[in-house]
Amino acid sequence: MATAASATNLEPSVSSFVERKHKMLIDGKWTESASGKTFPTFNPATGDVLSEVAEGDREDINRAVKAARAAFESGPWSKLTPSERGRLIWKLADLIEKHTEELAQIESLDNGKPLTVARAADAPLAADLFRYMAGWATKIEGTTIPLSVPYTPGTQYFAYTLREPVGVVGQIIPWNFPLLMAAWKLGPALACGCTVVLKPAEQTPLSALWLGELIEEAGLPAGVVNIVPGYGETAGAALAAHPDVDKVAFTGSTEVGKLILQAAAGNLKKVSLELGGKSPNVVFADADRKSAIAGAAGAIFFNHGQCCCAGSRLYVEDKIFDEVVDGVAQRANRIRMGPGLETGTQMGPLVSEEQLRRVCGYLESGKAQGAKAVAGGERMGEKGYFVKPTVLVNTNDKMKIVQEEIFGPVVTAIPFRDPEELLPKANDSVYGLAAGVWSSDIKKAHALASKLRAGTVWINCYNIFDAALPFGGYKQSGWGREMGRQALELYTETKAVCAAL
Ligand code: ADP
Q1: Residue 154, by phi and psi: left (phi above 0), alpha (psi -120 to 50) or beta?
Q2: What is the pLDDT of residues 176-217, one digit of tens each?
Q3: Inter-axis angle of helices 419-426 and 442-451, to 10 degrees?
Q4: Which of 43, 69, 104, 161 can bridge 118 by disulfide, Cβ–Cβ 3.0-4.6 Å?
């Protein structure tokens, strides 16, 4: 197995972790899969096998759900006070912070992202999310409600609501921000008092498994968080369909989101979905040119474009179209590509061979339909899954590359004349996850923000995430909001209690 050993400056604990054969976490025990099968995860910078991981399937999901049910119904979790739950979640945040370097290295090895990014964004944001949610554990409150029941004149009632945990939750997460997506899912579920079966993406299971060790170290009782790695069509599908799971939370493609919904129909479990996007990023002529250009480049090239909210449709006011496109192209050409662990790397490989093929397929389709690459436009090298940061012009709203989510470092640039012409174009998408507006005219920027059909609108910035800021999609970008106080709604039921006095 040629892998981590050739990478630079790995922590010894990371080297030994990667070389280990990984088990799954069920009921507080690290166990083999019921079938005994394992699956490989790959180093996307080389294509070599990185680790072997226990391959979960239906039987493992059954065992994990059973453990989560027991921990929810009768285990110590249900008996802890909100304050005690909050303390454990906070402790987990501290442990993530303590292990930032290891987690960042694992993320970089498994996903391909630059170590500097994993260190600065993925790990600290995950710790911050848990801290933010730890605070909520003691603040999940109902209300008292005055009643005016017309058919029982003279009777007084005392009515109030309780917010109760929804129960056993299945969480299925993607590979683009493996640790952070685990945090977005686990944080609010635990704060609300739910128990969880988490299925990480098959491409990137390692940071979730490390997190499992930290969850144990933090002292969360057995069965509260179960982690079952495996493939989507097997372990994921079994989790989404499981009759004893009360809710499924999914982040991934819109296509799979629809399958999750069908699978969930059997027992009508609650569903929340954070799906794809094709987000418009709009630059007006009155924008601060330098920051708009840097922002437009960052909006698409951050995380190699593997962000559901990537600013992949760049709309630029026609007067400054050439200047902005040229600026973004120059930035694209300057991005230093390489393995995530190599010093100085600004963009790593795509996560998998499948993604490489997918993104290159879109590049071919764009060219065939008349698009022109003013930067990139092709794979880089023969080894690893690298695609050059790409800026495409001569595109129009009907093209596949403008309509479909590419999930790679590819932006299509399109000019517009004025806000009236721009708005229908910007909203012309089955998605509605995010949007960007660059302008020094705050009236214009806020007016456009109110009309964009998107769950997040960034003005004069992009990709700004905070544990307190809700995130989620309009249209086919999903159901529900993660982060912020809205995330608590995903993991609680409201009970109305009415007493005659
Ligand atoms: P991508 O296309 O970006 O790889 P996916 O939506 O396929 O994203 O995957 C996101 C997550 O969904 C992963 O954990 C994957 O294993 C899981 N998954 C894929 N297919 C299914 C399915 N049919 N049922 C449940 N989970 C699935």
Answers
A1: left
A2: 999 999 999 999 999 999 999 999 999 999 999 999 999 999
A3: 30
A4: 104
Active-site amino acid positions: 274, 308
The protein residue whose alpha carbon is closest to atom 17 in ligand 1 is: 232
Alpha helix ranges (H) inside 372-414: 400-403
**Residue that has been written with the tokens 């979790």 in this structure:** 77
**Assigned token pair, 233:** 């069509």
The C-alpha atoms of residue 307 and residue 88 are separated, in whole angstroms, by 30
Pick the CATH number of 4-275+478-497 from 3.30.70.141, 3.40.630.30, 3.40.605.10, 1.10.10.10: 3.40.605.10
- Give the integer Cα–Cα distance in Å for 486 and 140: 11
Interval 13-72: pLDDT, tens: 999 999 999 999 999 999 999 999 999 999 999 999 999 999 999 999 999 999 999 999
Q: How do the domains of the chain map onto residue ranges?
A: 4-275+478-497, 280-467
**Which of helix, strand or coil describes residue 62?**
helix
Instruction: Tell me whether residue 284 is exposed, middle or buried, using C-beta atoms within 10 angstroms of its C-beta: 0 to 12, 13 to 18, 19 or more.
Output: buried
Annotate 197-223 with b (16+ C-beta within 10 A) or e (fewer): bbbbbbbbbbbbbbbbebbbebebbbb
Residues 372-384, buried b or exposed e (16+ Cβ, 10 A)?
ebbbbbebbeeeb
| Domain at 280-467, CATH homologous superfamily | Aldehyde Dehydrogenase; Chain A, domain 2 (3.40.309.10)
Q: How many angstroms is it from 308 CA to the middle of ligand 1?
A: 14
- Cα 87–Cα 88–Cα 94 angle in degrees, nearest 5: 90
| Of 350, 328, 346, nearest in space to 337 by CA | 346
199 CA closest ligand 1 atom index: 14
- Bridge pairing between strands 270-274 and 372-375: unpaired
Token digits of residue 284:
């007006």
Q: Bridge-partner residues for 317, per DSSP?
A: 416
User: Does the C-beta of 236 come closer than 6 Å to ligand 1?
Assistant: yes
User: In one letter, which amino acid is 66?
Assistant: K
172-182: per-residue pLDDT in tens?
A: 999 999 999 99
Angstrom distance (rounded) from CA 133 to CA 6: 38
Q: Is the CB of 235 under 6 A from ligand 1?
A: no
Residues 6+ apart with CB under 8 A from 205: 22, 41, 53, 110, 178, 229
- Check if 39 has its Cβ closer than 6 Å to any atom of ligand 1: no
**44 C-alpha to ligand 1 centroid (Å):** 18
Strand partners for 499: 158
pTM for the full predicted model? 0.97
Q: Whose CA is nearest to atom 13 of ligand 1?
A: 201
